[in-house]
Amino acid sequence: MRYNKIRKMDISNGPGVRVSIFFQGCMFHCKNCFNPETWSFDAGEEFTDEVIDKIIKLCEPDHITGLSMLGGEPMHPNNIEGTTKLAKRFKEVYPNKSLWSWSGFLFDKDLKDKEVLKYLDVIVDGQFKDELRNPNLKWRGSSNQRVIDVQKSLEKGEIVLFCD
After folding, report:
1. Cα-atom radius of gyration of the chain, to the nearest Å?
2. Lesser CB count within 10 Å: N end or C end of the chain?
3. Measuring CA to CA, which residue among 39, 30, 43, 62 is closest to residue 132?
4. What pLDDT does 164 receive?
């Protein structure tokens, strides 16, 4: 498994000041994707336990409100084991900081039985659709994508949209 980059202070991928990791590899290849350099599963750097340690350390300051996991595709079968390992560790160390992820896979169809959901606070699901692009949307690029409160959705057994 590989990753493309880590942003130490990101204000565009979730609320507040966050650390963001962009995983490497995506099979969706959405038209006008904002991050096509993450499509190849062979590019980027190796994702190791040392990288997890680095991310956990970067999230330590009080001004960091959470961690965002993007891509590429963090939920792809090639990546989900590492995504889950990072998510679990993050929530063990920082139970009161938020954990967000973006995925082209659908929460209630493709991800409903994945362990990673136990740790996520919010997921933005659905592939970016250029024909539904809307720059006025918060946290998502196209109107088909949903910003889902994961824990409330798991509790209720139905999709609960995130309201901030």
Report:
1. 15
2. C
3. 30
4. 74
